[in-house]
Amino acid sequence: MTTSHATDDTPSRPTPSGTGHNTAGPPPAGGGIELFPVNFTTYQHDLLPDLDTETHVRAIADLLAPYGVRTTPWTVAANERNRQEVENRLGTWKQPAGGNTVLYWVGHGSADHLAHHLTPTPIDDGVTPLDVARAIGNRQRHPGNADSWAVVVLDACFSESFARAVHIELFTRYHGAGRYLLLSTAAEGYTELGAFTRALHRALNITFPTKRAIGLSSLGRELASNLEGFFDDLTVDDQRDQLVSLTLNAATAVSGPLDQLAELQAVIDQLPADEQRHFLPKATGAELGELAWYFHGRTEERDRILRWLTTATSGALVISGPAGSGKSALLGHVLLHTNTRLRDLLIRHGHLQSIPAGIPCPDDPFDLVAHLAGLTPGRTLHLIAEAAGLTDLAQQAADGQPPADLTSRLLTELRERRTPLTLLFDALDEAEQPLVIADQLLRPLAALPDVRLIIGTRRSTSEGPDQPATDDTDILDTLRPRPDAAHGPGTGVLPDVEVSRDPDAIAGYLRAKLHAAKHRGILRADYSLIEEAVRRLVTDHRQGDAEPQQFLYARLAAHELLNDPTLLIDPTPLIGRTHRQLFTRALERLHRTDPHYTPLLKALGLAQGRGLPDQDGIWARAADALTTAHVGTGASIPDLLRDAAPYLALDQEHDQSVYRLAHRTFTEHFTTAPETAQAHAHLTTALTRHTRAMSDGASPPPEAVSPYIRHHLAAHARRGHTAGALGTLADHPDVLDILDLTSITAAALHHSLSPNELPPAIAGTVLLQHEAHRSATAGWPSSDAVSWRRWWRRLGTTNIQGTPPPIETLPHSSHEPPATLIAGAVQKRHLHLQLTGHDGIVRAVAVFAAPDGSP
Length: 855
Description:
- By secondary structure, this protein is α/β, with parallel strands linked by helices.
- The chain contains 34 helices and 20 strands.
């Protein structure tokens, strides 16, 4: 049976106009889904309690509304839904309808039967697995349904056993039936009414929010993981069978802090469905900074950027300033004004003021807008090649070919094609290797004709909020053009816009933020009280040695005021505080709300790349590794996204939705802690165990492993090397052999590591990475590529240590390696990186200083 709980607080996304669950008729053009409930609310026998299933049918319809859902209601009265009416209902569903469908069965059940209104207790009579399999099989085999998929959800107690029996019947009796996803909501016992609704909400709005198209197999795995039930996805294909959104979700258009995305979504949800459907921002994935209706001041800086965009045909314009000064907000403001669809929409609805007459404002000038936080040189090159339409080059970069091999080709092709290209990069200082990206990619790009770059960055890699001012300008020096070979870095003129402290802009932002909260009923305070608090925060901040407040200070202070309105009466606890102190205050408040929030936030602070995905349970596993409880933090993720929205940002990487802290200052709170290396070691162990658990100790297929693990586990091991993390990874070569080669190489050759600190297995992988890469790109099945990876790693290890590593059982491969290393001795080789891109004569070698000063 099904227990009935939690029917009043089921989360759902607001239903956009024109796509709600009461919509009748054919699906909207371009897609649409039929929701076909088989739901039971009353039962003749008293031992089977009544269930409020109608509430959950409506909630599911609301969740699927952005995908063009239309509900086919069961019009039979609740007390007449007997065996015959169930047969009639299933008979209607399996008729050819020419569209995608979700059959949602919800009610009481047992391992062998699903109950209808007249089913007795115990439940030993009712609808059988054969009945359900017959409906699925006949529907999916009908030629009229050949181009559509079906999702069947069995929401009843003991439904895992029932669903397994349906699966067996389908494969035994209904050959040829395909394109169906079968799910149950119960593991081995009772389920809770509403569990599926919550799991669907999490999948659509937390796990996959940045994806307009969600593959059914991926969706099924996430639902099954949350529900711990049975799922069968053997006949669906993620590239073919998808939920496709027909309306605009802010998360698919831009990335940024969660509270700002929620406000933008509220604006979008008020639009007619047709306007949403045709609203496709050109700068997809762009980060907005602070929403335009809170942005104040910076008009001179904004106008300088707009004039440069109007007049310059090549070169770079750098937007620099102290940490937290509002560089991203300024760039986001420029982006809003130059994105015609987004600009016109916001102006029309009163959220944005037009640029004054006489100030040029180009329409849609950017071919690429990228936030570089956590990006590697290879990933940055991939984005540039993709934006320029260089498909082959972009694919090679995506496949992991070292960027050093591809950079010269990128520059040559861009120089020869002579097509204008305008790129906006923010947060260069937060990239994985900012000086390498500046020196090898951005500066050479800016020297090309017809290529323009706008770059937001701190001036130096050693600059940070709440840190003493520094005269170092290594990032700006690296970006400066070099007129000829006789001049070193820093000799050319680099146009820049300096974003400095602006008290009036800070006051305007605080005032607008608090007034908006008052207007929405979130803040109850007189305007005079707000004005006095703003005045004190702006004018009384400098006490003793406190630094002048920047834009980030105002943003943090605003959220503390909204969470504790008593601070409006006396904002003294916020005055004279650093960014770090304000963030620490927020962390303490959030910890009091739920102690699980702390490891979840810490995991984001230690995340590599763009952030942590909820998909595959990666964020939850990382957080569990950072707490003594070691379990259960994942259940708090939905509430954390609500309670900590201003401090979290939604982004995407490797075609997954990922979460990160919204500002580098927040990240530095965790990365500068004394126990950081040990924390990375814990993360390395947890993610390694997770990967091994997928295949019982053998290397799993790379495509089955989370992209986050493949691309970032080596970075966690490098950062935790002083706590033994590199040894943990080397001790599990089955995991090492499926990681991205470029990520292993970058971690092993990092300037903070001595070659002597590298375990032989990792050093051997890097030594022959060029050979392993050739094997990986040979077009063989992934199992063959892994076999060759393992063979090259063992040969490299032999070269590093002089003798073969212990014998391993190699997986079978149709493209067998030439030999198996068993015993012997060779002359040891020192670790080095063989470059494969240049095959001509080397005429010069340049020496440069790493960030720690070593040559």
